[in-house]
UniProtKB/TrEMBL annotation:
This is Sensor histidine kinase. It is an enzyme of class 2 (transferase). Its EC number is 2.7.13.3. SUPFAM superfamilies: ATPase domain of HSP90 chaperone/DNA topoisomerase II/histidine kinase, HAMP domain-like. One of its GO terms (molecular function) is protein histidine kinase activity. It comes from Cohnella cellulosilytica. It is found in: Cell membrane. It comes from the Bacteria.
Amino acid sequence: MPVKMTIFRRLILMLVLLILPILGLYMYSNQVSVRVVRNEIKESNLQHLSFLLRQAEVTVEQLMLAANTIGRFQVIDDLIHIDEKPSNYEKVVIKQDIIEKLRLSGASSNWTNQFTVYAPAAGTGVTTLNSADYGAMFAEDAITKEWKYRETSENGVPVKQFVRHTVYPGSRIIVEVSFTADNIRNMLDQIKLKGKNDPFFYHPGELPIMNRTANETLAEGVVDYLNGRKVDADRAESGTEYVRLQGRQYMINYVKSETLNWVLVDYVPMEYRLSPIKNSSLLFYACIGMLLAMSIAFALLLYRNVQMPVSQLLHGVRNMERGQFSVRLTNRQKNEFSYLFHRFNQMASQIEQLIENVFAERLRSKEATLKQLQSQINPHFLYNSLAFIKSMTELEEKEAVIAMTLNLSQYYRYTTRVENQEATLGEELELVRNYLTIQNLQMQRFDFELDVPDDMLELRIPRLILQPIAENAILHGLEPRMEWGWLRISGERDGSGNRLIVEDNGVGLSEDALEKLRIKLDTPLDNESGCGLWNVHQRLKYRFGPEAGVEMSPSPGGGLRTVLHWTDHENKGGPS
């Protein structure tokens, strides 16, 4: 009897077939990993050194910039012509002013620095140093336009410092800026505090500038190696060397400072960095390789046997959510999903049949409801109209009789047509015009105005939707008012939808009465609720959705303002 290959058994078989190749790949993976880590360490150290060196160069460039701007001070011209000053007090004031400006220039840097300004023509200068021998400091062979490392003395104590001169045109003045090697040493101390580095500054022929806790033995070995390799600071850019010192292999990284013409050097033991990787690489990379391969296998297997069927099932469910109940699923593989697909197809078929039945029933119910609502509109003013015709006939007012008869016939011709449940807004307005003309003939104490844009006249709306609003305005607003009245019907259309506004200057309603009427519009019709506004409100909701309806508020003219509103997208695709 053949064994049935279920999804689980296929997964087990795939794992067994993948284990054997993994055992042959771990050696190669280990070698590649060590090489990659070595390169990463080198690149990381070089980038770190470049970043730190750039910070130092920025500080040095600030000092150079300050030296280049000192000669532009107005008081420098006073120093050049200081011999022309009549009193020693003025000379002292000039020098003191220059000293203050030199200190302000040096304050822009976080390094300890000194500035000296020398005017050769006057044979004098100003300095922030404690003392200065201008003749020796600005001798021709002592002037350097590049940074120079030299040893000098302050108060009898030898001091190593970097110095640079800025000579202004015509040797008008010479500015010397300097900073001690302790600034470099402080920077190296900060670098070492942040890691296990042991950096130092190197230049052939000079003693290296080391951090204060440096391993001098190892550092000297690195310097001897660099001297033997003839790493020239004039030509070096950046690089990496490997050297064995005291029985251990070290990686030496160096980056040249273009500004100072020195090289920042750092060395790290490779054993310290690579030994944990070597010790764990076999197990780590073997596991990673196995997990990776297993993941790929699982992904492929699950995609074909699980993901694809699940995707089909989800696609079918989404189609059903969108109302496409005719969707059916197929599965050629004989597995657990075959049963699910079969049951899904049965369920979809049953739901489709049920939806069709319910939808047909709802259509019939909705049509019956709309006809019932339309039939509730009772032209109760017929008797008054006939009485008016009788009275006018007795008075031999032929024109009034003709006008009443014409408008009344057009009015009832429209209202008695029940074959179509919708009409254009233009047709509805014509009906309202007939109705208002009839009422005006009877009352003869109000004016009316219809102001609806032409682009709204072709909109399709439920029939007899506007006349009940005008009827309420006449009967409950203008008729109780004994003074002359007016009624205006206007239309608006914008991005938010369409609005028909009916407003008058009748007696209106109080705020409490308005609130009660608003509540009744959304409650089921009962014996106490009125039919006119209620059925208009409900028919708008039936036709255009729950956002459509009737809103009421006080009119600026003192009467009532009624707004019928619906949106354009709800007006599209409806029944005609």
